[in-house]
Amino acid sequence: MKNLTIIIFSLSLINVIAQPILKEDSLNIKELETVSIISCNSKSISGSCAEIDALTLSKLNQLDINKVLRNIPGVNVRDEEGFGLRPNIGLRGTPVNRSAKINLMEDGILIAPAPYADPSAYYFPTFARMSGIEVLKGSSQIKYGPNTIGGAINLISTAIPSSFKGLAQVSYGSFATNQQRLWIGNSHTNIDYVFEVNRIASNGFKQMDGGGNTGFDRRDIMGKVRWHTAAEAKIQQALTFKFVRTEEEANETYLGLTYTDFQSNPLRRYAGTQKDLLDMNHSHFTISHVINPTKRLTINTRAYYSETFRDWARANSFGGQNITAILSDPGTNQTGYDIMTGQADGSIDYRSAARTYYSRGVQTSADQSFNTGQIVHKLQIGARYHEDQADRYGTKSTYTMTNGIMGMTTAGIQGNLENQVRNALSAAGYFNYELAYKGFKFNPGIRYEYIEFEFLNFGTTDFTRLGTNLLSANNFLSVFLPGVSASYDINAKMNTFIGVYKGFSPPGMPSVTSTTGQAREEIAINYELGYRYSNKGFNIQTVGFLSDYSNLLGSDNLSGGGAGTGDMFNAGNATIQGIEFSADYIYKPAKTKFPDLKIPIRVAYTLTDARFNETFVNGGGDWGTGTINANDLIPFITPHQAMVSLGVESKKFSALFSGRYVGLTRTKPGQDDVTTPLSNDNFAAVNAIPSFMIIDFSANYHFNKTWTTFTTINNLTNNKNIVSNLPQGYRPAMPFAINLGIKVNL
Fold this sequence. Notes:
Elements: H1 4-12, H2 29-32, E1 48-52, H3 54-60, H4 65-69, E2 75-78, E3 88-91, E4 103-106, E5 109-110, E6 130-137, E7 151-157, E8 165-173, E9 178-187, E10 191-202, E11 207-208, E12 216-228, E13 236-250, H5 259-264, E14 268-269, E15 277-294, E16 297-318, E17 321-322, H6 323-328, H7 334-340, E18 346-372, E19 375-402, E20 405-410, E21 418-437, E22 440-457, E23 471-489, E24 494-505, E25 522-535, E26 538-555, E27 568-587, E28 599-612, E29 616-619, E30 625-628, E31 640-649, E32 653-662, E33 665-666, E34 688-689, E35 692-702, E36 707-714, E37 722-724, E38 731-732, E39 737-745
Parallel strand pairs: 4-7, 11-14
Antiparallel strand pairs: 1-6, 2-3, 4-5, 6-7, 8-9, 8-39, 9-10, 10-12, 12-13, 13-15, 15-16, 16-17, 16-18, 18-19, 19-20, 19-21, 21-22, 22-23, 23-24, 24-25, 25-26, 26-27, 27-28, 28-31, 29-30, 31-32, 32-35, 33-34, 35-36, 36-39, 37-38
């Protein structure tokens, strides 16, 4: 996989797809170390973007990133296990399954376990330790890859403070859900640091047949140590080492419920899932160097390495009948259903899906600005060299259900179900230029990506990987991705922007078994037109977007309802278009006993229309098999989503109600009438999930600068609607749950 030409190309560029865009005109080393990739306001970026800062997160007190992201229009989220530990996120109509079609970053570094070779994000950073979120969509995509159609999400971890500071936080609530968090940090003349520990655990809100824990236990450690030059040094620079270690054990399952059982008790879990277990650990290391050789030149270089192990072991069939068949028609598959629910004795095929992921690379960027008269020029150049790997060892064992209790009868040999290695190598670079004159900005750029894929399938009998039955395939591709955007400040309050760019997503591993042809890269020409207004606490942003796909890709993942081969499928021309709208207003009553009283109001709405543009026979996977017709709606993309929040704030107290609406969502391609579980309990016949709305509440009371007490209430009205039918069967939202906690600022 080593390619000398690519390595030379990568290292010869001065920088990498460098996620951080650092503030010019600053010689403060602490600002040089910022991990923000965008500065999202009408004066700085020619595209749509959104930020959620540390103050907002502290008011929400949410451990679930899904609930926070719904504040941002254009973000599609599918709930799964109720706690947001493995969110399914899409942007502007990209598939949500395991967040595989967006760029997930932490502090500007790609964070999916193997973002090229196997991009499904089974690991997701512990959201409790984040101090901010940045969401970038639209015209400024060329700097962030590999997925440049939908957008990028950057999670900002706890920053090193400028002086001694810390936080201790504990909470406890429904289902024995508890959190303990502690971080401390300080800055000195040349050495700064921050260290943080988190633990989040719960007994789970699902009710196992026969009893049992359905929760999880996640532990997380993060540290940063930074050396930097003294404040009076002529050339400012810093070297930072960061590490993250996460361990999780979750009694989590892929299996949901039949609709009949969901009606009886939406929180039920079948006896056949009592041994389902996710074992996961993740280690990440980053070394960053940042230097400001001149007042307007910043060079940022980072080397990173991560290793992730994930084994999601779970029941795969009951009595020889697969789960999809049982869910679709329990009556016909009564034997399997009775074993699954523990009402009958019988054999269970049990799958252990052990996977080890490796990811490493180096990225560098240089940002230079200069003036010619009244014109401000900004040049950004970047490069990244990246390698990742997914090592899959799936094992099939046999259990027996006896009187409602599962016991192992045959232990499988590791690799007897899946035995393969997926390798990927990428060299990417970009050049971006911005010209600013008074209120006008013009921003052309181009991105280049070269990718090598190598797929090694050793088969299910070559356990030691001697290569006797090896099937292999390679794929090489390169793509140039140009883009251009412009913005104009109409006046001090109003700004408009427009952009067009060529978007791309990798085609995944080449198949050694496909009968429908190899998947090609996903390509779309993307357009957006936006307007912003900001005046005295009142902010509006509205954006129209259109993605014109020349080749849309489907996927076959078990988590998305497929067979689990991981293959990608060409779907040809498609169009995804829509409107994003958000408005914020802070009302300050003129006369009140509380002079610092504020009433924040926020509204966000997304309209999305996603359709196939040609007729084809689908090869399987998330969209099923058979003919898909031109003008059919693309499934799992919700047409209407909305969020409304209303709060009350003072110096001592804050409270916020937040309601999120998710409209009817198709689960199968089509343009005919919808069939929901309300009218047909046959899982295979249902093609849509009904709409639902969930209301959450959070409140904080500050006794003083040191002590704060807080509470959150999730699902205030105890909504019992279906929120998802994936991976296998119907799933509920977390029911009414209250959480109480204390924060101590050190």
